[in-house]
Amino acid sequence: MIQNSAKQNTVKQNSMKNINSNTNRQIESLIGQLTLDEKIAMIHGSELFRTGAVPRLGIPALVFSDGPMGVRQDFRPDGWTSADGSKKPTSYLPSGSALAATWDPDIIEMAGLVLGEETRARGKDVILGPSLNIKRTPLCGRNFEYMSEDPLLAGTAASAMIRGIQSAGTAACPKHFALNSQETERLWVNVEIDDRALYEIYLPAFRAALEEGGALTLMGSYNLYRGQHLCESRNLTEKVVRNEWNWDGLIVSDWGGTHHAVPAGLGPLDVDMSVTPDFDDYPMAEPLKAAVKAGKVPESAVDLKISHILKLMLRLGKIALDSNEDGETTVSKGIRPAGSLNTPQHQMLLLEAAREAVVLLKNEGSILPVEPGSCERILVVGAGADRTHSNGGGSAEVAALYEITPLDGLRNILGGACQVDWLPGCEAGADKAQDASWQEKSLETSEGRDRSVDEATKLRRKELREAAAAAAADYDRVIFIGGLDHDYDLEGQDRDSIELPYGQDELICALLDANPNTAVILVSGSPVSMEAWADRAKAVVWCSYAGMEGGNALAEVLTGEVDPSGKLPETFPRSLEETPAAVFGDFPGRPLTDAEHARMDAHLTQTYREGIFVGYRYYDRFDAPVRFSFGHGLSYTDFEYLEASTMTGPDGLPTSLRVTVKNTGGRPGTEIVQVYAGKASPDEEDPVRELAAFGRIELYPGETGSITLKIPAAAFMQFDPKAHAFVRTVPDHILSIGSSSRDIRLSIPVSAEADKIHNTNGEENV
Ligand code: BGC
Hints:
5-stranded mixed β-sheet
């Protein structure tokens, strides 16, 4: 149970536990008792989600589960069908993109705790999540799982979730390390990137997950980096994770991400998992055994992997070690807390997370909220209003205990107070379950779906649109609810466009023609273009897949029961052509040159030419217009930023910032204060500003309050590839404080030389 803090404390100690030298000796002695066959059994899948055990010595198997939006169904040992005919309903969490929109580490930690408790209750050890790859392009099919285009936000959200998961005695497995920002050719795309972008944009969230979150395991990604598959990579996974970060947790492959026995055996990977039931043929099974016997891989390399597995089991409390009278290590069952499944507390916590994930993008003329009693008849339009999402998306699918749709949510609140009618207005993708063997097939192909629309479909859409538009004129209020679904936000495939599918642009335009007070609500895991109607729509709301209580949360915000406080965790561009990967890059990659072919086993090479200019770092540096900026999100009330002042450390740099904000509107509300740091005179290759800190402040109407935010030293540093280190470059920086990356309300110059305190009125406070 969530309230059981004693349990949480015990487990926290377990997950933080450093392995002391005595335990290291016990581990060594235990490894000494294992045969090569037993070691090999422990380091690869013996089922799709389970490693081999060594019953002779009491060493259990490790049990994994997807993740991260709930505990996935159990599969049969040898194939992708439900283990016992039941998909075992569980709680369905908001997606990574929804959780990140809360900008609230506390609620994300609670969501993690729900996931950790349910994973434990289902008898698993490791939950495969959170997913935290940087959102490099809006087209990535898994953006709904990922958290942000910004490394600080992604790292803060991921580490909060990990702390929650691990508080329940479950190991988190942040994924996919690293540079896995596209699905096209996901197994065979080779990424080329400069070191500054690698260390400043793509690695920090993983580092935070391991160091601040304390993650006990890590998943290697499918793709290659400079010619080496990440699961076998010595040039990134070993060099950075093992050597630079000095991390001794367990590294598991993505399912099917290992290809060669020798590099995998010599490299940093500990456990080789895949999607096919030919377990003995996995690279780290019989092929690695043969390589060890042939002297190509020393057995000590296998021993190191075993030591990581045993350390994980100890840290989880899955096993305990002791010694017999001969001084040999013995294994017994460890002490672990029980989990809990589908509890009302879990549902309440997920409702709270979903509430905070709703982002109000525009609200001219305050047409939202639609308060109960404010009108007689409301028309809800859109197939998305009546759509569930839990059972799709790929490995993040969940057999949800229940899922409240937006229409259910609105009727739950408004039913009785006014008449709520619904018309589809368009025809969305069928709610089709994925082919059971999609995951096995996805290793072979990432071809996009045929999205052509035949004449009959066009005609049906026209009829549905006209019927909705005709009805819209007669209603007091119209709420359109649409966006994407998991036919588009989908593992294994990228989108080829950011336009709304199913003729929704035409439908929204027709509704706005018929009733200008139509509010547009979009549910999607990644940005969509709104250019066809955004200037005309008075109210626009976005939220991602917000879990089992998502419909209730959305309805509470739309009806004013809850004030919206979510902020965009990524920029919403105007068009695909204006996004940085499209402007600079060659997404989704180009065929390999002959020289590349000669040195690597890949299909495409993808050069991240935009470097560090990902998301708002690009738009702000190049003054490119966007539809809605990173960090943007309105409330039903207004906030005025009154003043900010810094406290400096001994080196003259600010260590914290105090911001004073007033609620100048008529409702209670929550503002997420954002602090960005940038050089006072940025060079061409520098971003103008980068997120340095953020925090939530709740204020009643007329109330003034202050929030103090810690400013990390990293805010004033950049990665110097020559020194291979983060260094301070110039003395003068500016801290910009505001409501989004483009809505800066206050600025403070800071200088490393000055050990004085500045405030926003330009005076020096001593
Ligand atoms: C996905 C992982 C997932 C694994 C196991 C892979 O296809 O990329 O995120 O955890 O399968 O289902």
